[in-house]
Specification:
Layout (H helix, E strand, L loop, with lengths): L16 E2 L5 E2 L2 H12 L4 E3 L3 E3 L2 E3 L3 E4 L6 E4 L8 H16 L3
Antiparallel strand pairs: 1-2, 3-6, 4-5, 6-7
Length: about 100
Amino acid sequence: MKSPYETNTKYPEQLIHKCHSGNYVRSKSESMIDMILSSNKIPFRYECALELGDVILYPDFTILHPKTDKIYYWEHFGLMEKPEYYKNAYTKMQLYNSYGI
C-alpha cells in the first residue's frame, strides 16, 4: 500500500486538509476517516485510480483488510444535498454495482 499509485489529479486546489498520514484530503470528514484508518494501522490509499471497463474512478479510500487482504472501497459522499453531486454519486454507485462492488 506504500508503493506509488495513480491518484486523482482533478481539482488539486481542493486538497486543503493535511492529515497525520501525510495525505492531503478534500474535507474535514475525509481527514477524520484518514486519521481513524491510519491510527488503527489499516492500510489504505486516498483517491487511488480504479479502472472499471473504460471508466477510471477515484474512490475516496481504497482499504486493504489487514487480515484477509480483501479490498474495500469507501466513498464518503459528503455533499448529497446538492442535486448535481447526488446525481453523480448515484451514477457512480450504479457503476460500482454493475462490477459487483
